[in-house]
Amino acid sequence: MLKLTEEWDKVFPKSERVEHEKVTFHNRYGITLAADLYRPKGEGKFPAIAVCGPFGAVKEQSSGLYAQQMAERGFLTIAFDPSFTGESGGEPRYVASPDINTEDFSAAVDYLSCREDVDPEKIGIIGICGWGGMALNAAAMDTRIKATVASTMYDMSRVNANGYFDAADSEPARYQTKEALNRQRTLDYKNGSYALAGGVVDPLPDDAPFFVKDYYDYYKTKRGYHVRSLNSNLGWNKTSSLSFMNMPILRYSNEIRSAVLLIHGEKAHSCYFSKDAYAAMCKDSPYRQNKSLLLIPGAVHTDLYDRLDVIPFSRIEAFMREYLKA
Predict the structure, then answer these.
(1) How far apart, in whole angstroms, are the C-alpha atoms of residue 171 and residue 22?
(2) How many CB atoms lie within 10 A of CB 272?
(3) In this structure, what are the phi and psi dihedrals at residue 53, rounded to the nearest 5 degrees?
(4) What is the dihedral of CA 150, 304, 79, 47, to 10 degrees?
(5) Residue from 304, 107, 117 nearest 125 by CA
(6) What pLDDT shows up at residue 269?
(7) Closest by Cα among 114, 17, 130 to 70
(8) Handedness of CA 161, 164, 166, 170 (dihedral sign)
């Protein structure tokens, strides 16, 4: 039985324009997930959206902000914590999985499809940062998803296997990483616990790259810090990246028939993920007509986490209305 926090503990103000409640649902692996539900006021069957991300965040941060904003625009939304994190279930804690975390999105669609106040033919998803890649992976598998937004997307398989900017894209480099991670597996088993990799570095070194400073500014300050956020605190299990190194998540992205909108900051260190994902989705695909890439001039990675003056919610709303026929 999950213990859910009832008080408002988000990093953004509560809207009086929508109704809010805590809900739970389960995935196919028997893990119970916790979510915040944001419901427009009124009656009837609503179009619905499931939101998750960023990678290492919780629903009280960016995903909740997206969900509340979209509920204000007439969509019933849920922002959920992925398996093994936040208020969701799953043991051991703080582990990520390309399979299970893709399944988490489909489990959210299961839940929404069975609500009496949701039109099951009008369900979309929004993935932020690392969950942008997971959202695309879910869209390639789950035909019930009619529209997908990936915002400031990371391809977690690519970055774990190749390093940032593909700087470690070689068999020797991968082998060295796998050797270290598998030594850690042995040590974890011997110790009976899982060592954590650490969240965003703190204190921040003077010579930290800009993108590290960018993360620090969100996760380690009043702007975005949350007590349950992995990135704000001690991070993922050190060995979490092993499965991503061996399992590409976007293998069949060019077979996604439903609509996809990728949004990225033009100045973000991570922008190459969305540019390349968009090109791969459209390459030799008869379904490229409903795929689009929106680059936000001057924006960096975390600008799309919480900056209401930067996140193109009107564009997201128009996209969802068009493809959910809302």
Answers:
(1) 45
(2) 15
(3) 115, 175
(4) -60
(5) 107
(6) 97
(7) 17
(8) negative
Out of 3.30.460.80, 3.40.50.1820, 3.20.20.30, 3.40.50.880, which CATH number does the structure's domain 18-155+249-324 have? 3.40.50.1820
Over residues 59-103, the pLDDT tens digits come to 999 999 999 999 999 999 999 999 999 999 999 999 999 999 999
Nearest Cα residue to 255 out of 101, 123, 141, 109: 141
Helix 62-72, helix 313-324: angle, nearest 10: 60
The overall average pLDDT reported for the chain is 97
Q: Interhelix angle for 130-141 vs 271-282, to 10°? A: 20
Phi, psi of 125 (to 5 degrees): -135, 155
Question: What would the pLDDT profile of 246-300 be if each residue is shown by its tens digit?
Answer: 999 999 999 999 999 999 999 999 999 999 999 999 999 999 999 999 999 999 9
